[in-house]
Amino acid sequence: MRIGVLTSGGDCPGLNAVIRSVVHRAVVDHGDEVIGFHDGWKGLLECDYRKLDLEAVGGILARGGTILGSSRVQPAHLVGGVERARGHVADLGLDAIIPIGGEGTLKAANLLSEAGLPIVGVPKTIDNDIASTDVTFGFDTAVTVATEALDRLKTTAESHQRVLVVEVMGRHTGWIALHSGMAAGAHAVVVPERPFDIDELTTRVGERFEAGKRFAIVVVAEGAKPREGSMDFKTAGTDIYGHERFTGIANQLSVELERRLGKEARPVILGHVQRGGTPTAYDRVLATRFGWHAVEAAHRGEFGMLTALRGTEITMVPLARAVESLKTVPADRYAEAECVI
Ligand code: F6P
């Protein structure tokens, strides 16, 4: 079999573990040939690739980022993109393509699959918002990084009697905010799923100071927004791909809390540090299992499918279903967090 693998969209700790696993399972166990496309779909569209053998994937398990590079280029964004991809798959004699990516990548994968290309997807994102899998690799690492940062921020917040508004990633969903906030014992967690009321948030933080506490930590997901009419709020437009830009919610919120509470407040934006560096053991294991199962699905001819974690088992789910909706933080999970924060 000849398999093409690519990593597309925002990078994520664990991508290299999937690539390594695909190569080990395919090349060593099945005698396949594996090629890796550079910079996501762009590599497939421009026929830019390299052969991946055991040597190429040596020592990459613990490495963050992706040895193949990534980009946000999508076949559907380019005129004739799908046809070009189909042509290159035929020219290269590929029997399977394994794209590793998040929401946008999987939508593109589904489009190519519906156009007849042999696709087996692997979900990745630190945001943990892919509906058909219980967990995506990268999430555990991001939560670990954010939790460590929150633990550190508590000491400086206390020294200065400040409110620190800490912005974590999560464009559409608040999984990182929820988990890191719970793990670090934050004093408020604000997620995109529940537009916040600035009066309620101010009261919550204010009560802490009234009770004699010297500081407060508010964790806010980058996609969080105030309830309509609750406070002045500036959106930041879209980027060159039409994605909504970060609004700088931590900045806006810290200014407002400082004004209302009469306490020093500072924004802290963790940003891409959550995506960089070595994956946790959990993420390495999940990524490795996904790679193994993607190769097996390709050998069974199970295309148009996505690897997914259900409980402790890896299963295959239809790509078309996987891209229907995002996995948002449900009210009961938020309630569990609220009772301890
Ligand atoms: O990987 C997902 C994510 O981290 C989102 O939380 C965030 O909005 C986005 O990627 C930002 O990625 P980039 O700056 O690479 O476009």
TrEMBL record:
Enzyme kind, highest EC tier: transferase
Gene3D superfamilies: 3.40.50.450, Phosphofructokinase domain (3.40.50.460)
InterPro entries tied to this protein: ATP_PFK (IPR022953), ATP_PFK_prok-type (IPR012003), Phosphofructokinase_CS (IPR015912), Phosphofructokinase_dom (IPR000023), Phosphofructokinase_III (IPR012829), PKF_sf (IPR035966)
Residues of the Phosphofructokinase domain: 2-297
One Pfam family per UniProt: PFK
Pathway, per record: Carbohydrate degradation; glycolysis; D-glyceraldehyde 3-phosphate and glycerone phosphate from D-glucose: step 3/4
Principal subcellular localisation of the protein: cytoplasm
Claim: NADP is one of the keywords in the record: no
Compartments where located: Cytoplasm
GO molecular function, one term: AMP binding
Active-site residues per Swiss-Prot or TrEMBL entry: D127
Binding site for substrate: T125, I126, D127, R162, M169, G170, R171, E222, R266, H272, V273, Q274, R275
One GO CC term, this protein: 6-phosphofructokinase complex
EC annotation from Swiss-Prot or TrEMBL: 2.7.1.11
Cofactors that this protein relies on: Mg(2+)
Annotated positions for site Important for substrate specificity: G104
Keywords from the named record: ATP-binding, Cytoplasm, Glycolysis, Kinase, Magnesium, Metal-binding, Nucleotide-binding, Transferase
Reactions accelerated catalytically: beta-D-fructose 6-phosphate + ATP = beta-D-fructose 1,6-bisphosphate + ADP + H(+)
Sites where the protein binds Mg(2+): E103
Sites where the protein binds ATP: G10, R72, V73, G102, E103, G104, T105
One GO BP: fructose 6-phosphate metabolic process
Keyword Cell cycle: no
Role description: Catalyzes the phosphorylation of D-fructose 6-phosphate to fructose 1,6-bisphosphate by ATP, the first committing step of glycolysis.
Subunit structure: Homodimer or homotetramer.
Family of the protein in this entry: Belongs to the phosphofructokinase type A (PFKA) family. Mixed-substrate PFK group III subfamily.
Name under which the protein is recorded: ATP-dependent 6-phosphofructokinase
Native species: Streptomyces venezuelae (strain ATCC 10712 / CBS 650.69 / DSM 40230 / JCM 4526 / NBRC 13096 / PD 04745)
Gene that this sequence comes from: pfkA
